[in-house]
Amino acid sequence: MSRVVLVTGATGGVGRGIALACGEAGWTVWIAARREAEGTAVADEVTALGGQGRFVRCEAGEPASVQEAVATVVATDGALHGAVHNATSGLSPRPGSVADTTLADLRDHVAVSVRGTYLLARESLPHLEAVGGALLVLTSEAGFEGKARLPAYAAVKAAQRGLVRALAREWGPKGVRVNALAPLAATPAVDEAFRRDPAMSERVLGRSPMGRLGDAATEIGPVARFLLGPDAAFLTGSTLLADGGSCSIS
Amino acid sequence: MSTLLLGTDAQPVRDLARALGAELVVVPDVDGAPGHDGTDWAWADALEAWRTEAAAGPATGAVVVAAWTGDLGAPTPLDDLDLGGWVARHEVAFGRWFAALGVAAARCGDHGAIVAVVDKAAPLDCAGRAAETGVADAVEALARSLARSEGPRGVRVNTVTTPVRLTSPPVVLPAPPLATFPGTIAVEVAGAVRTLLGRDAVGITATTVHADSGRTGH
Fold it and tell me: What is the mean pLDDT of residues A158-184?
């Protein structure tokens, strides 16, 4: 069955990988992002793979923008089967201690990751409930174990896991599933984090049993597609790690 | 060993300070600021100023953080929680925790211990508590981040969770393993904190102890 899904922050990295994987299945994929040129390019890739790619402008932390994006999807395609919150703050890869992190910086992390989850969840719920759909939130192994040099990022990724757990309880009776996915993938953000903290690459790859980062399109995207699709019909409230066995906490 | 407690000026926090024999340093209650709904984080300026001032205080060997929201409010499904409510229950609360844990790291001396005590409902009981559950998970991760960053100087950082202020009957079945659920601040919570601050816990860091009478189940 063809599905209609919206993916925030899908102009690159894991979001793009999810979009392409869903496109391969013939789904309609909305690239919800700020940058139109990059978003349209990913939408074109989705279409080239056999899906239907579309772009809608979306500022993940802005209520009116999220509301308008979801309304556009439903007005155009008549349904929303899956909502994916992948967008993160541009500050995510910037290393620093808790003391180095101002509350202004924290605000940006919170606005995009956590408020963005809250906004997308609320706007999507009636449409997901109408079709028995699913909400998927992209978190991180950082949300399990913390990060010495990325404490704000780790905290908001953990907060998202908490939201997912509670929402799964609240929305189960409505027939809407809520899950999280914690990938460890080669993305521009990870590249940037490695560049800013050269020892990070050794730390991250050194503990991974597979010794490498995942591929966003071929190894992460299909896991997200599974969580959004009918094969995961009895799966809710979980955080699935797609990290090559890297995370030390399950 | 003198214990510093960084917490809001709420009665349960005072109860915890009394049970631990700790000196209370009050974290400002910024959510009471009039004239705005909090979405713009204007309230963070007061927290930032407090963080700078409080971090400059003398070091101590044991720091407990209980940056608790004074009034947690009734359980509310996320779809019934408007943005102002969300900001008050999640963003302001987490901002306060972030500032307070930053001060804890600054004030904790080498080879000391920090314990964050956070309100958290067990997975069975977290419906209607998405905002608070998100804060609790964020605090646990933040404590683990601090355990990693402060570990090289011998500082341990752990978390105690408690459902005391979040639990209202009836609870979802099955019943918790211990009839004492949800416990009390003075006994179950303070006991877990004392254990983690003490010398017997010298090898324990980056851990979460659920002082919830077995409700969490792992």
Answer: 98
Whether the Cβ atoms of residue B108 and residue B158 lie closer than 8 Å to each other = no
* φ/ψ (deg, to 5) at A35: -95, 110
Which pLDDT score is estimated for B168? Answer: 76
The whole-number average pLDDT for the span A47-71 is: 98
Domain segments of chain A as ranges: 4-239
Q: Radius of gyration over alpha carbons of chain B, in Å?
A: 17
B19–chain A nearest CA distance, Å: 29
- Average pLDDT of chain A, as a whole number: 95
- Choose which CATH entry (3.40.1390.10, 3.40.50.720, 3.40.718.10, 2.170.150.70) describes domain A4-239: 3.40.50.720
DSSP H helices, A53-115, are: 63-77, 103-109
Report CB contact under 8 Å: B137, A161: yes
Q: Report which of A12, A7, A59 is spatially closest to residue A29, judged by C-alpha positions.
A: A7
CB pairs under 8 A between A and B: 147
Q: Contacts of residue A122 in chain B, CB cutoff 8 Å?
A: 78-79
Between CA A59 and CA A87 the distance in angstroms is 9
Using the predicted structure, report yes or no on whether residue A197 has a pLDDT greater than 90. no
In chain A, which residues have their Cβ closer than 8 Å to the Cβ of B95?
103, 106-107, 110
| Alpha-carbon span B68 to B156, nearest angstrom | 21
* Distance between start and end Cα atoms, chain A: 33
Average pLDDT over residues A19-37: 98
ipTM of the shown complex: 0.95
From residue A230, alpha-carbon distances to A30, A233, A241, B117 in Å are 19, 5, 19, 40
**Residue in B129, B133, B148 closest to A148 by CB:** B148
How far is A74 from A82, CA to CA, in rounded Å?
12
| Averaged pLDDT in 10-residue chunks for chain B of 218 residues | 92 96 93 67 94 97 94 92 94 96 98 98 94 98 98 98 87 85 95 97 97 85
Q: Which of A67, A101, A107, A118 would you mutate first to test chain B, the one with the most B CBs within 10 A?
A: A118
